[in-house]
Structure formats: C-alpha cells, structure tokens
Amino acid sequence: MNAARASLLALLLCWATAALALVAVPPLSGRVVDQTGTLAAGDVASLTQQLGDLEARKGSQIAVLIVPTTDGEAIEQFTLRVAEAWKIGRKKIDDGALLVIAKNDRRLRIEVGYGLEGALTDATTKRIIDEDITPKFKSGDFAGGVSAGVNRMIAVANGEKLPEPEPPHWQSPGLSNYVDPFNPFILVFVFIVGGVLRAVLGRFIGAAATGGIAGVFGWFIAGSFAAAILIGFIAFVVSFLVQNMGSMGPSVGRRGRDSGWVGGSGGSWSGGSSSSDSGFRGGGGSFGGGGASGSW
C-alpha cells in the first residue's frame, strides 16, 4: 500500500515538474508576436496590415508567433497550446490559423482551425512550409520567409467560402444614407426647441433634453438606432455650445454695473475619454490539430 502511494506521488511530482518546465504561452499582443527581434518594425507593420485586411474582408484570423525555443517540447504540442490560449478565428466558425516559428530550434508549424481545414489542408500547409518558407529561412531571409508563407496562407484562405464578417458593433453601414444630421430643418429645430428647454430647465439639462427629443425624431425618420444616437449627440452639443456663446454677449453689457465680468460659469465640455480598442484578440476559434510542421 505504501509502495503504491509512493509510486503515485512520484508520478504526480513528475507530471507537475514537466508542466512547470513547459515554455509559457506568450500573451496575444498583436497579429504578429516576435519574441526574438527577428522582424524589423516595418516587417511587422506590413504583416499586420495584410492580416488585418484579411480579417476585415473574410472574417478569418491568422497570427504569427516567433519564439526562441520550445525548450524541448514538440512544436506540435507547443503550437496547439498557443492555439488553445489565443483562440484565433471566429467562434463556431473556427476560421483561424497560426504560423509558429521556434527560431533556435529551427522548427516551425502551421496550425489550422476547423473552419479552414477545407482550404488549408495538411498537404497544402506542408507545401507552404516546404516551398515558400523554409527555402528563405535556409538562406537567412526570415522576414521574406514569413511574408511568403503568410501571403500564400492568405491566398488559400481567400478561396474558402465562409460567413461574411460582421461590421463593428459601433458602425452602422451607410449611416449617411439614412439621414443628414446637418439638415437645416434639424438645426432650426435645435435652435428653437433648445432655446425654450434651456430657458426652462437650465443649460445642461435643457441641452440634454433637446438631444433626446432630436434623437427620438431621428429614430422615427431614419429607423436606425445609430442615426438616432448621432443626431441626438449633435443636437446636444450644438444646443450646449449655443448657450455658451449666448452667455458671453449679455455679460459685456453688465460689466459696468458689477465689479467684473458677469458671464456664465466657465465650464468646459468634456466628451470623456474615447478609447478605440484596436488591440487584436482571438474570436473564440477552436483547433483540432490540423496543419503541418517543418524544419530548416
């Protein structure tokens, strides 16, 4: 009994030691992650642009990772760990692919998600490695090899029939076709209604109410929530700024009666910090071990 427990403990210790010895999966900081400094900034920018264009056009995601070594771990196992952590490709479509290079080990692999396996087959990815990538790697042209491999992966992925990519949630296609927010009738409405509401409710609340009413009208006219938000925001800003401009005029006439300027409080408009999350992230794609490996 004691021998069995000792054996089980030894097995668990070996497993834990092996797990701790694995090279950590790098964080997904972009479409191209180079931990070796092999690629110049211009190369990374060019690859990033190409891969971004592919995602915008097809929805598919391709990422590149260059590490110094997998430290004895098989390139297949390491790449699959990266794929499972990064989740490249769209969820339930699984149209992602990874090009992983262990430079010091002289090993590389292309890992393909389920959704692209019809185009980026095992045979196709093997040919990309053997015909496009490794010949350039052997001559020391790593940037050229990565670029050639990525270009061919993109060309093959373009031939796969996939669902159209969804537009960004904040973007409403053809918004300008719905309604012109600078239509003179809208501006006149803002000036008249905004003036009345500001006089009754005060500057900020009146401007906000004006924006809300304009947004409701925008919703009925355009039938678009995005258009309603845009019109309401513009109406709020215009109404608010008009009040500020109006408050400066009367203060000039009152200067002689008071010890100083009697204008509105010098508050400033702040739209808040608008953060455009342009950071690349995986879409939840899954991988099943498809792809090919190679060396040079």
UniProtKB/TrEMBL annotation:
Alphabetical list of Gene3D superfamilies matching this protein: 3.10.310.50
Limits of the TPM domain: 32-155
Alphabetical keyword list: Membrane, Signal, Transmembrane, Transmembrane helix
Signal peptide feature range: 1-21
Keyword Magnesium part of the UniProt annotation: no
Location of region: Disordered: 263-296
InterPro entries: TPM_dom
Transmembrane segments: 182-201, 213-242
Keyword flag Secreted: no
Comp. bias intervals (Gly residues): 280-296
Entries under PANTHER family matching the protein: UPF0603 PROTEIN YGCG
Name recorded for this polypeptide: TPM domain-containing protein
Organism: Bradyrhizobium retamae
